[in-house]
Amino acid sequence: MYKYLYTFLMVILVGSFIYSQTFDHNTGNIQVTVFQNGYIGHPGTGTGGNGVVFLGSPDACFTAGVMYGNATYGVSGMIGSFTDGTNVLIQDMVNTVPISNYSLPPYFNQVSSCQFKDNLAPVPYGLTVNQTTYSNTGDDFVFIRYDFTNTTSSAVTNFYVGLFNDWDVGLANYTNNMAGIDVPRSLVYQWLGAGTINDPNYYGLVAFNGMAGGTASSEFPGDATTIRFVIRDWISTITAPLTITEDYRSFIGSGPYNIGVGGTLMVGFGIVAGQNLADLQANTDAAQVIWDSFIVPVELTSFTGTVNNLGQVVLNWETATEINNQGFEIERRTETSEFRTVGFVEGYGTTSEPRSYVYTDMTAETGVNYYRLGQIDYNGAYAYSDVVEIDVNGPLTFELAQNYPNPFNPSTSIKYSVPESGNIRLSVFNIVGEEVAVLANGFSQAGFYEVTFDASNLPSGVYLYKLQSANSVQTKKMMLLK
Fold it and tell me: Which residues constitute the domain of residue 129?
């Protein structure tokens, strides 16, 4: 339990340079320090950072940070003030992008961002973690958003994301802390329950995506391996804390999630304080409203894709609400290529009504294609959807597509598919039935095809184009406007 001795050991063994870059959120009510490798508060008293201070009371945070994982490898991240059998504080995170000021979204006046990976973990998950923190003057809370991007070659499944805080409410009186849990609010909290009450405030962790697990514990469970699996259980199962005064650590978790290859998962938490329990609960409710309104401006409820008879991928997605939504970039990759933008669909700005969207990718390649949506706010903030996998097989039907664009001037594209090899003819006729162009004529393998019709030498008007095989024929209209 000699946590402040552990702090000295941690500085020597890990190196104080890791904690050299910080960002202090100060709303005037609450102050929270974040570090470039994901620590929050400070990595132990005396090693930099101002901790968590509310209304001028003593620093209430020994150390805090993100933890994530599944039942296969246990958690990685800021294992925190727990130690292994040699009293070495465990931390897995290595900074990859230093702290930087972030473009300010609506409502907030302090935002910072950094990026890290769990490269020091025994078995790293290999995910890129982007941490963005938000605050605003006068608030009693600070928001922490984590975006996990799977840059590995396999999906991550049954994945939980959690936050812990080794609260020391009353600082030197930390052994007299008590803990509670408010399940409807997804809130785990602590306060000073005995001794000299030099800090009457309540301090909490809230999970904005919903709480899958949460507790407060005074244990130092097992060795370095055991700790990872015990904490994974704590962030995936809701357990009521003890009702005695102890040196507690609060844990809260959200999930489970699956992150496909190339996918990005966004999970949010908050550090909240209040002058009493009722005030803490009211502040938690207010924080949830602000999170829903400003940090997650678009609530995506579905994202699916199908393949039509022409081998085109039709993407459909729906939103429940939208705030400040400029639109969606549609990105695609294959097994051998990186994501690139193939289209854009405008959003509805701000709306509380459900909205439906559709986009047809007419350039999808045969084989497996991966799609994701990049949602863009008017202020430039960007968020990715999950990735959907679409397998584009060979043509199944004899199909002639509507030309695009239509009307056109002077050229247009015509797509068609043939399900089996044989002779085909694609020709264009004027309105009186005279053939004015032959676009394809002869033997064709089964497959998808696209040709360009150039009508530079033809007058404006309605034209017919006809696809014919030994067994089928289809005809469509198009309009040339000069």
Answer: 3-296
